[in-house]
């Protein structure tokens, strides 16, 4: 019965909005998704493309959840990469969500550039949805972002997703437009506090909070909360040389508990 309900919700999702599921890596999930003002790693592609400029070398990441909330129909996988060049920062991502009967695929190519303490970014997303017996459809969505270092310890970010108001399929279903504003307080290299407010068209604002603390260099502890939907989360990160493993455990108000893991590799540059 649960699977029937989930499948019904998924079918309704694409008819009304679609592509709301964004793979963001376990670090962000553990911090409640409040990353717009921080966005300081390869997973910025899911939060604020302008944040890519904080990656000073090359960084790659992957995440895979075969069955979110113990449902194989909610399989989620993502591969991301960022390259910092003298002309700006280039990012790419491939994201797959769903299963054989219903599947969303998103390919993203982005570019970010820093001007003093202000960074701007843009990301082009090719969205493709396939539903068994109904075929597939694709469309193009564009995200734009801004990231500002107000003070050494205070950062601010804003992002508009699907600013071009894309539609998909013969029914011309409109994909969701999202507006997110976030701040991050980084008093030292060990501590990060984040807060976001997300507003989707025709929905109430959703606040999100996140916390990260590195008591010693190899290990980080994280916690977070988000509303609409209501989720509480926690997790940890382990860094060894160029490799970082992140783990998150998340509780959804209706679906219960799930686990998320991701791995990232950094080459060149330096950590803050």
Task: Tell me, briefly, the overall form.
Answer: globular
> How many runs of DSSP E, i.e. beta strands?
16
Number of helical runs?
2
Quickly give the structural class.
Answer: mainly beta
What would the CATH topology be? Porin
Fraction of helical residues: under 10%
Distance between the termini: 48 Å
Please give the CATH class.
Mainly Beta
By CATH, the superfamily comes out as Outer membrane protein transport protein (OMPP1/FadL/TodX)
Low-pLDDT parts are 1-17
Radius of gyration in whole Å, from Cα? 18 Å
Gross CATH architecture: Beta Barrel
Biggest sheet, strands in spatial order? Answer: 1-2-3-4-5-6-7-10-11-12-13-14-15-16
Largest sheet: number of strands, sense, barrel closure:
14 strands, antiparallel, barrel
How much strand content do the residues show? over 45%
How would you sum up this structure, described in words?
The strands form two sheets. Strands 1-2-3-4-5-6-7-10-11-12-13-14-15-16 form a 14-stranded antiparallel beta barrel. A two-stranded antiparallel sheet has the order 8-9. It has one domain: Outer membrane protein transport protein (OMPP1/FadL/TodX) (Porin). The protein has two helices and 16 strands. With 272 residues, it is mainly beta. 8% of the residues lie in helices and 57% in strands. A hairpin with a 4-residue loop joins strand 8 and strand 9. The relative contact order is 0.19. The longest helix is centred in the N-terminal third of the chain and has 15 residues. The N and C termini lie far apart (48 Å).
């Amino acid at each position: 019965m649960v699977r029937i309900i989930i499948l019904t919700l998924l079918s309704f999702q694409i008819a009304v909005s679609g592509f709301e599921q964004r793979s963001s890596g376990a670090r962000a999930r553990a911090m409640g998704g409040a990353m717009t003002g921080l966005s300081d790693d390869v997973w910025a592609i899911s939060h604020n493309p302008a944040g890519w400029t904080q990656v000073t070398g090359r960084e790659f990441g992957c995440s895979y959840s075969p069955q979110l909330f113990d449902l194989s129909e909610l399989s989620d996988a993502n591969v991301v990469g960022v390259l910092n060049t003298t002309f700006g920062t280039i990012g790419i991502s491939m994201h797959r969500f769903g299963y054989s009967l219903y599947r969303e695929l998103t390919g993203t190519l982005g570019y970010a550039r820093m001007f003093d303490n202000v960074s701007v970014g843009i990301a082009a997303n090719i969205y493709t949805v396939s539903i068994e017996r109904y075929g597939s459809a694709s469309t193009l969505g564009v995200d734009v972002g801004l990231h500002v270092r107000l003070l050494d310890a205070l950062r601010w970010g804003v992002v508009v997703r699907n600013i071009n108001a894309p539609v998909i399929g013969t029914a011309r279903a409109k994909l969701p437009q999202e507006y997110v504003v976030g701040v991050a307080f980084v008093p030292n290299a060990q501590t990060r506090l984040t807060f976001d407010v997300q507003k989707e068209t025709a929905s109430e604002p959703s606040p999100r909070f996140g916390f990260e603390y590195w008591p010693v260099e190899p290990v980080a502890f994280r916690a977070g909360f988000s509303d609409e939907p209501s989720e509480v989360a926690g997790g940890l990160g382990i860094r060894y040389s160029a490799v970082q493993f992140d783990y998150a455990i998340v509780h959804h108000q209706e679906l219960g508990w799930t686990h998320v893991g991701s791995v990232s590799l950094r080459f060149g540059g330096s950590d803050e």
